Amino acid sequence: MNLTANDIFSVKDKDTFNAIALNIFKLQAQNCNVYREYIFHLGVDADAVTEIAKIPFLPISFFKSHSILSNNDPVEITFSSSGTTGMVQSSHHVTNVKLYEQSYLQAFAQFYGDITEYCFLALLPSYQQRAGSSLIYMVNDLIEKSRHPQSGYFLNNHDELLKTLLDLKSKKQKTVLIGVTYALLDFIENFDIDFPELIVMETGGMKGKRREMVREELHEQLTKGFGVKAIHSEYGMTELLSQAYSLGEGIFNCPGWMQVLIRDTNDPLSLIANGRTGGINVIDLANLNSCSFIATQDLGRINPDQSFEVLGRFDNADIRGCNLLVQ
Fold first, then answer.
1. Average pLDDT in the 168-175 region?
2. Rounded Cα–Cα distance for residues 71 and 289 (Å)
3. pLDDT digit string (tens) for 283-304?
4. Left if phi > 0, otherwise alpha if psi is -120 to 50, otherwise beta: which for 307?
């Protein structure tokens, strides 16, 4: 089966997802050298894997030490993770950036509708100040595709951001403000704005700028400061080409081509039932040219409706910029 982007992004049901995921597993078990070696050392026979639950998930830390590629195509772009000075960064070598673009554009449309109906504002100073951010790549494109004259970045110019928000509110313009957590808190420390229709989307991460906060405390401050009913969130990372979204309460949902599973913290090769806390495994079908089966260092649980929550991180995990709040 020769998979295309259309196959991946048109997944509508569980059976189709499982069939494509198993097909991608077979391809990557053969063609991704790092993943093939990992599977071999686990003693897993890739040909004998016939269900999702039996697929080995590659520890995300491999992206720090190896090039994870499933083909020999030229690398079009390399995304790198954020981190403190001296920390080894993850690198995701992308041979087909169109897969990433289609993933975030289609996901935005699924959860929020037509991007051209929005003004898209970004408050992402720590991301803007470094190279290789997949988040900045996405935000740049969303700003451009929104085609709104007031869409754009606000680095430290909070006065201008306030003025823009008040103007958009007066025009009843649909608006998304995406921001790194500490920058959003910095803004509401200086300004209060009552903009109930505003979508405030926090990307997580204090980056050492502030003390870590539990989600409830953080979202309480942000909802009060912006005058909104809920705080939206994005769950994504350098090693993935897809994102899950929360429209409030820290409850995340995946687009159709992405799935979260929970592994046993004491037996990382085994999955556990919904409702129990464990390590978050992600299947990202858009990672067609790297590895679609990633064992993250996040802790979480899956709810009965297949939504999921991020509950923290493993103690020995590096602090990263994707919703790291510990509850």
1. 98
2. 6
3. 999 999 999 999 999 999 999 9
4. beta
pTM of the model: 0.92
Q: Are 251 and 231 in contact (CB under 8 A)?
A: no
> Structure tokens of 196?
């109930």
Distance CA 58, CA 38 (A): 7
CA dist., res. 163 & res. 151, Å (int)? 13
Give the integer Cα–Cα distance in Å for 41 and 95.
27
φ, ψ for residue 41, nearest 5 deg? -70, -20
Helices then strands, each counted (H, E), the chain: 10, 14
Distance of CA 317 to the CA centre of its chain: 17
Q: Are strands 293-302 and 308-313 parallel, antiparallel or unpaired?
A: antiparallel
Token output for 65: 């030490």
Checking if the pLDDT of 20 tops 60, the result is: yes
d(CA 225, CA 190): 10
H-run or E-run covering 307 = none
> Which two structure tokens, joined as six digits, stand for 312?
């923290």
What is the Cα–Cα distance from 46 to 39, expressed in whole angstroms?
7
In three state form, how does the secondary structure of 244-270 look?
A: EEECCCCCEECCCCEEEEEECCCCCCC
Q: Which of 9, 3, 88, 71 is nearest to 35 (CA)?
A: 71
